[in-house]
Structures are given as structure tokens and as C-alpha cells.
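quick one before i forget lol
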Amino acid sequence: MTKISKKYIAGFIDGEGCFCLSKNQAYYRKEKRKFIFVPEFTITNTNLEVIKLILQYFKDIPIKVKLRTRIEEPNKPQYQIQAGGRDRVLAIINHFIKYLIVKKEIASKMKEYILSRKSKDYLHSSYTEDEIELANEIRKLNRRGPINR
């Protein structure tokens, strides 16, 4: 199998990748508590061969990612590499940030957000004004709506 470089994948992330925050319902002992914002990373493309090469790279370094396939006729199938959670997304950012160009700003904001939340109780800790601002900046860079408390 062909090997690909860190720089190649960083370029692929710049073009086809996304660092975002997903809004998820938090549960505590089966009770809904509040929404939490979970860092996520994706790469989406229709070329399965290159997606498999990128998957192998992640396996070798190792950072755990998932592969999802989306098929909507009449379009070509889309293959998506996904990683979620503070530790995995931070590991991806730390591994590639040196080589990012287009996504460097959003990766830096995501890293700052993750590090701000890292020492806190994920489910029960309130968001600071700075964290809300970072989340809004991340969403703005991804062209999404504002974060509400």
C-alpha cells in the first residue's frame, strides 16, 4: 500500500477537513441535564482509495478514527473519517497544526477551547464567557449560527 505524508494529509485537511463543535444532550443517571459542546474532526471525500490511505496513517500514529459512508443517489458515495472528543481532536490538532494553512486558525481556536475545558468536569461545569466566545468564533469560522448558553 502507498504511504502518504503528514504534509499531504495536512493539505487534505485544509481542503476537505472540518474542526467543529457538536451540540449534544448531556445525561446524568439517565436524566437530561443540559447541552454540552463536543469537539469533532472530519475529513470527507468521494475517493475511497485516498480515504483508506489516510485511515491507515491514523492507525499507524495511532489516533482512533471512524469511517462512515453516505450514499445519496444520484451523487457519488461520500466517505467520512470522523474523530470526536477532547483528547482525540487535540491529538489530531497537535499532530498536524504545524502544516495547516487554511484550517490553522480554526484548529488554534479549537485547541484553545479544548485546553480551557480539559481540566473541568465535562458534564457539570458551566461555560465561561471566554469559552462561549471561542465556541462562537469556531462556529463563525465554520459559517454556523451563534452558541447560546
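fyi Residues 6-141 form a domain with the Endonuclease I-creI fold (CATH 3.10.28.10).
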